[in-house]
Design brief:
Oligomer: single chain
CATH class of the domain at 5-97: Alpha Beta
Mean pLDDT: 76
CATH topology of the domain at 5-97: Nuclear Transport Factor 2, Chain: A
Strand order of the largest sheet: 3-4-5-6-11-10-9
Strand content: 35-45%
CATH architecture of the domain at 5-97: Roll
Low-confidence stretches: 1-34
Order of helices and strands: HEEHEEEEEHEEEEH
Radius of gyration: 20 Å
């Protein structure tokens, strides 16, 4: 069997980042600490980051629950991946996904600018913003309900465990 040396190198680098002790920033102090990653968390991160690389990893606490959060770089994009101690992916979100960008009316595409003026019925258009065009669906992954959001090119913007499933874990 022939193995592509580049994919082997990528896998080795990924495993070194995901499996070994990772130096991460502790949110409660400025000191760096070694983070030991439980096996279920490692497995979930490996599965979620397939084809990408983990560039940062740390422990976080949300609603009194300890979780792990990784920054994964994939195809030039960076994602925040949140995994609970049982290895359940709680949330994956493109960095900057929720960001909006204030733009003057003149910076907007002509069709949008014209639509805003028409819809405003002579009123002044204020506080115009550019936001991502997004599409959402719900699905089951590994027996859990998730909400998925992509942009118009099908790139993942957000993946989130549904609240009722999240509360039971």
């Amino acid at each position: 069997m022939r193995i592509n040396p580049l994919s082997g190198l990528g896998l080795a680098l990924f495993l070194a980042a995901a499996i070994g002790s990772v130096v991460a920033q502790d949110e409660k102090s400025a000191n760096t600490v070694a983070v030991e990653v439980p096996a279920p968390v490692k497995a979930a991160l490996q599965k979620e980051a397939a084809g990408g690389r983990i560039v940062e990893l740390g422990r976080v606490e949300e609603d009194g629950r300890q979780q792990y959060e990784a920054t994964v770089s994939h195809e030039g994009l960076e994602y925040q991946v949140r995994v609970n101690l049982q290895g359940v992916v709680v949330r994956v979100e493109l960095k900057g996904y929720n960001d909006t960008e204030d733009q003057s009316l003149t910076q907007l595409p002509a069709a949008v600018r014209d639509a805003f003026k028409k819809l405003a019925r002579g009123g002044q258009v204020e506080n115009s913003r550019r936001q991502r065009l997004a599409f959402s669906c719900e699905t089951r992954i590994d027996g859990r309900r998730y909400s998925l959001t992509t942009d118009e090119q099908g790139r993942l913007l957000k993946k989130e465990l549904q609240q009722d499933d999240h509360e039971n874990k």
